[in-house]
Amino acid sequence: MRRAEEKLAKLPWDPAASRLLNTARKAGSATQRVMWLQRTASAWAKPLQEVAACRKGCDHCCHIPLTISKVEAEVIGKATGRSPQTPTTAVRLADLDHDTAAWQKAEAELQAAAPDTPCPFLVNHACSIYESRPLACRVLINLDDDELLCRKVDGVDVPVPYADAMVLKAHYVALQPAGVLADIRHFFPAEVAP
Ligand code: SF4
Question: pLDDT tens-digit profile of 34-56?
């Protein structure tokens, strides 16, 4: 973690990310705010990629729970032509009332309820919705020197030195106050063969 923090300290916020964040704050609808925030996250992540373990073709993080918002599910739905379903397990941001402990509890509940399957948009080890991928995918950056700690070990919770994206996550909550969150697999359940 210390090494990850040292790497992060050498990479201050990109001015482009700050400009995009301002645009996200001022946008008129929740959908526009979330989409600008996604662009902010990508600009924030760009310089980190030089020092991160994340590489094309590595898909460990596409096998773990992934919380997205209804707005993000609708953006994905538009891009793919696949309508999001009403999730069986969901959390309303309005119920969390900006309480960090409540947020962490809700996040843990959503993760526990997530089906143990890969993300439905993972195809041949690559993201098939890259341009529309949710914010959580854009900010999950392993600052270690290799992907060893990202490897999934059943029954073991291995800590990964992810980049600290708290500022972006706080905006994610604040910019869609009526948002509904669920795992991506609950918005887009596996299609049952006829
Ligand atoms: S949306 Fe794309 S990047 Fe995110 S978990 Fe799914 S396949 Fe991976």
Answer: 999 999 999 999 999 989 999 99
Is the CB–ligand 1 distance for residue 122 below 6 Å? yes
Tens-place pLDDT, residues 66-99 = 999 999 999 999 999 999 999 999 999 988 877 7
Indicate whether 23 pLDDT > 90. yes
Q: What is the mean pLDDT of residues 149-177?
A: 91
Report the distance separating Cα 128 and Cα 109, nearest Å.
27
Residue 11 is part of which domain span?
Answer: 2-186
Q: Residue 192 domain-assigned?
A: no
pTM over 0.85: yes
Q: What are phi and psi of 154, to 5 degrees?
A: -55, 130
Q: Which atom of ligand 1 is nearest to the CA of 123?
A: 7
In a domain, 86, yes or no: yes
What's the number of domains the chain is made of? 1
Q: Is residue 193 part of a domain?
A: no
Query: Looking at the domain assignment, is residue 63 inside a domain?
Result: yes
187 CA distance to ligand 1 middle (Å): 13
Ligand 1 centroid to Cα of residue 27, in Å, is: 25
- Gap between the Cα atoms of 182 and 60, Å rounded: 20
Of 8, 120, 130, 111, residue with least CA distance to 57: 130
